[in-house]
Amino acid sequence: MRCKPGRLSALALMAVLSGACAAENDGRQVLRIGDHAFQVEIAATPQQRERGLMGRTQLAEKGGMLFVFDAAGRHCFWMRNTPLPLSIAFIDEAGRIANIADMQPHTDTLHCPATAIRYALEVAQGGFAQRRIVAGVRVDGLPR
Q: What domain range is 36 assigned to?
């Protein structure tokens, strides 16, 4: 089939846009904290947030899961059915880390933010300390 230049441009644009939409909807996103980048899975629906990292036995060194809430609040976390030791950064609506906690596998201990948060980022335990990431630091690349 032979395409006219206008049609070819439209087809190319559609291909680019469909690729962008696929990337946007693949559930992964890059977050930057200072000089560090994390490739994170997004948990934005109630079902995704409830499931979290339950049952996972591995997490990439620069991987993690970002929990996105519809509204800021005191969202608490536990580790039921989660075999990985994790660290969690509670992030406020402005994108600043409010506090960080370490969480032990297979426990029902609640880990709560110090203030209202809109996001929570889970990484392998010690991942924040190892990179000298502390409360007050800004997280870039958060979805709105």
A: 27-140
Q: Is 21 within the bounds of a domain?
A: no
Q: 19-28 pLDDT, tens per residue?
A: 333 334 457 8
Among 75, 112, 114, 76, smallest CA distance to 96 is for 114
For residues 18 and 4, what is the distance between their CA atoms, to the nearest angstrom? 21
The number of distinct structural domains making up the chain is: 1
CA–CA separation, 137 and 34 (whole Å): 8
Q: Is residue 105 part of a domain?
A: yes
The answer to whether the Cα torsion of 91, 97, 98, 104 is positive or negative is: positive
Task: Dump pLDDT digits (tens) for 98-140.
Answer: 999 999 999 999 999 999 999 999 999 999 999 999 999 999 9
Single pTM value for the model? 0.81
Q: Is residue 80 part of a domain?
A: yes
- Distance between CA atoms of 65 and 68, rounded to whole angstroms? 10
CATH of the domain at 82: 2.60.120.1140
The position carrying tokens 């990431």 is 133
Torsion of CA 43, 139, 77, 29, to 10 degrees: 20
